[in-house]
Amino acid sequence: MWVQESAIRDEEIEILLNDLLELYGYDFTNYSKASIKRRINRLYSLDKFPSFAEFRYHLRNDAPYSKRFVEQITVNVTEMFRDPGFYKALREQVFPHLGTYPFIRIWLAGCSTGEEAYSVAIVLKELNLFDKSLLYATDINPEVLEKAEKGMFPLSQMKQYSENYILSGGKHEFSSYYSANYNLAKFDESLRSKMIFSTHNLVSDHSFNQFQLILCRNVLIYFDKDLQAKVFNLFDQSLENLGFLALGTKETLRFSSIASNFRQLNSEKIWRKV
Q1: What is the mean pLDDT of each run of 10 residues along the chain (274 residues)?
Q2: Fewer CB within 10 Å: N-end or C-end of the chain?
Q3: C-alpha torsion angle, residues 115, 118, 122, 128 (rounded to 10)
Q4: What is this structure's pTM?
Q5: Is 253 exposed, middle or buried (0-12, 13-18, 19+ CB in 10 A)?
Q6: 63, 135 in Cβ contact below 8 A?
Q7: What is the DSSP pairing of strand 184-187 with strand 178-181?
């Protein structure tokens, strides 16, 4: 009869996170402790390892399993036009400003499986700004980036995404942007022509360009305060003067060390660098 050891202890979580940093360069040591512990214990239970020692052995010595480990403990919950009011604010308050620039560089940090990138591309297309824009979509997890590049999402989600799109101020038939492919919706390849997908670790990697808009929504809630401060500094360095920073509904710049460099544009968690 299979019996698993009880939940992994806090000191064992630290050991696993240090292994991950030492061997693979992924630094989760300053992520929210409760969140990371919950996800690691879920994986431990799901994969039915009889002991912590065996779990750790596979993480250290089995490359495919280490990929699974990273994929499972990073949060990949997203949808197209999530929080439609946010996209309406982008459409009406942010992109009209950026439309005056000769070229628009946008960074989608923590892009997950790409729904946000395709949503932004659609809005840019409808505002006739797409051709002079470049979208850098990054994530720590190479597995989700592979999915994002394909631009294929469950067909069953399209009804919800279409409703989100209309509420966000969408001007066309949402179905005109994709074709049905069995149980998947394949988005128009032209949307991908202005996207660059790349791995980037917000914790350890540096700024790689100057942007007019950075979106990092619902990522920082999983970081502790020190790590949030580090990422905010990275965004400040990466954003041009008068550029825009968009955060998630539960995230704020208000108490950060860079708060004085920004003013909040609206209630949709969009700030402008001053």
Answers
A1: 68 92 78 82 91 94 87 77 95 97 97 96 98 96 90 96 97 96 94 96 90 94 83 96 94 91 90 96
A2: N
A3: 150
A4: 0.81
A5: buried
A6: no
A7: antiparallel
